[in-house]
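Researcher: Following up on the earlier apo prediction. This time include the ligand. It's zinc ion, with the SMILES given after the sequence.
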Amino acid sequence: MSNYSFSPLALTQVLPFLPLSQAVVDYQVARRDDPGLIDELLANPRTEILLVCGGDVAVPRGQGEIAKRQSVKLRAALLPASYLRDFIVTARKKANLCVIFLGTRDSVPYLALSVPVKSTADLPPDSLLSQVRSRFDWVDLRDFAPRTSALEAGLATSGVTVAGWQASQRYCPQCGAAVEPTNAGWAQRCTNPDHAAILFPRIEPAVITSVVDRDDRLLLQHNYAWKHPKLLSVSAGFVEAGESLEHAVRRETMEEVGIQLGDVTYMGSQPWPFQRSLMVAFKARALTTDIHVDGVEVERAQWMSREEFMRALADEEFELPTKAAVARYQIQEWFGQDLG
Ligand SMILES: [Zn+2]
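Model: Understood. Below is the ligand-bound prediction.
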């Protein structure tokens, strides 16, 4: 993977590069408790602000059109805090704007501003926020992260994940009172004075497994839910309540394709904010080879040798998972060469 700088996380995982696992800023978690931190950072001339909206990241005008091209490099539209400070200080009071402290790198503090997906009635249509929404191009994190620097990929992954949670949970799940952001955006406080709980995001782990047989063939499958009819990938599924990761790996593979697994080894993990999930990747050795697809989730599955894989890929008989997906890097690890 010569195109990319290695993440420090590569030291602990088999997969050397995962685009959404590139946290290179110092989180400075201890500072999040300081209630004046966001105001202090907004007044700091070095502070830069990343704009996120739903699952999208703001990039300079013109970059949006080229975002899906293979070799293109993208950069985020990072704004100096001075540009947005007065607006944020005023708007935060009336519009529940969420600002998140992402951390510091080379003495530059980074904030994320969550731009509401829809216009908010609390803000006039000619407000700076409306201008911000129309002044930049917006690129899906899944297209942005594989095509930018480790720093910006990490900032964008944190920003989209935390902002997405703040936007989706507006009321306390225990007492129903409104919530407000706290801990520099990383938590919420229930506004009910009798409850006043601090709430943190719940993450849903999912396992994703590359299965190889005794002849080192890879098991590839196509699921009904996938919108690209030629997409082939590896087995994945959510971990059930009360279940270990290892059990989830064996259960999912047995349920989906009827294959019994032997050794299971850890490959790496990456956050997947679109379902507030964490993808935990494994490689497993199959003890059996007879495939029985469930016909509900999985439409078809097949074993492929490297020769069959190479020929079918060259003939465009199937499509690989996107550059953002951990599955692509698991397939690449098995294949032994960069898949581009
Ligand atoms: Zn509550």
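Model: The chain has eight helices and 15 strands.
Researcher: Noted. I'll compare it with the apo version next.
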